[in-house]
Amino acid sequence: MLTFKGGVHPPELKEWSKDKPIERAPLPQKVFVFLSNHAGNPAKPVVSPGDEVKTGQVIGEPEGFISAYLHSPVTGRVLEIKKILHPILGKPIEAIVIERTSDDEWVHIETGDFERMSKEEILEIIKKAGIVGLGGAMFPTHVKLSPPPEKKVDTLIVNGAECEPVLTIDHRLMLERAEDILQGILIMMKVLGVQKAVVGVESNKMDAYHNLKKVFKGYPVDVALLRTKYPQGAEKQLIYAITGRMVPRGGLPMDVGVVVQNVGTCVAVKEAVVDGKPLVERGMTVSGDAVKNQKNLIVRIGTPVKDVIDYCGGIDENTERVILGGPMMGISITNLDIPVMKGTSGITAFLPKKSRPQKPCIRCSECVQVCPMNLQPYLLYLLSTKRKYDEAVENGLMDCIECGSCTYTCPSKIEHVRYIKLAKTVYRATRRGRR
Ligand code: SF4
Ligand code: SF4
Questions:
Q1: Parallel, antiparallel, or unpaired: how do β-strands 52-53 and 30-34 relate?
Q2: Does the pLDDT value for residue 434 go beyond 90?
Q3: Pocket test for ligand 1, best of 329, 369, 395, 402 (most atoms within 8 A of CB)
Q4: Residue 222: in which H helix or E strand, if any?
């Protein structure tokens, strides 16, 4: 089975939700749509308080090349545009607040038969639909699908690994929406001008693997079986497992002729190009031992986390941690008013666990063995705590993909990633200051 060097195998914890068919969450009463709902420049609002908006209507326009359109997730009235703490950026960012006043009245994107459209026409629809990578990175999809001409892309890889413990939405999409995934892939293959696409699926989802195989029969789309190992779905690890190509340090997948998209993004591309539907909702998993009724859901962007949790029966009063995303790479939140974003693949909530205190490093090198980026996590941790940021960068600080494999495996319970993230932030800020 295909895989990469390093990694760990944490408990999968997918049994809570893997057999739960995708449901549609109720329409929210109020949504909070961050202008920064994608990587790159925040969108520019094109509505004002008091404006009536319909579902799918443009409420924010891109600013610059790496930016994305925003659409109203509901039919209602714009209440205000105010700053709210952005859980990823860690600072208050403007969000458009909309109160729902009725059921959906849709505004669709003008579209047609994609087989007759030019690559540029398709790209324009993907851009107009505000699609970003739904795996979590939120990178605008139309930009990813426009590699410069000197980068010869020959393969589209679709990420169906879903290696994060607990999350099961991609698994369900591969079972329930395989035809849409196929359409999305064929559309993106046309845009990229590639003859080959491969979907990578971990071996703990054999039903999804067989389903995709069946649906893709007769099309130039393969399904690769990957070993169940974390972080198998990280871009560089996925590319290596499937093609044997290594993305160079500081490089991008397109440097080795590959573009990677997530299965959820394939569905969004199909819905935009075939159905004219902008990205106003996404699939996500709500799970963890503290959640009463774990579910896989389609949720409107901007819905407060609290509303989503309430629909799942609420969380235990002893809940210790609520996380946006999965337990390995997700972000802990304390405020449940935070809204679902385009990159929110799940909400997980856990009961307290017995945790052991952090101890000094015993130089066992376990963290080095498991690091999928061939880094020395114990050293990065040490240099970060000593604020030797330049030295940390020389030792690969910026190559760390923050997967948490080192922390997971460390017998001394050292939280490498926490310090590495902080060191990266400080280094970026000081570099900006030096310019
Ligand atoms: S150093 Fe970074 S890339 Fe390596 S295991 Fe730790 S978190 Fe993952
Ligand atoms: S795994 Fe933990 S204890 Fe072992 S070398 Fe790495 S940091 Fe030190």
A1: unpaired
A2: no
A3: 402
A4: strand 221-226
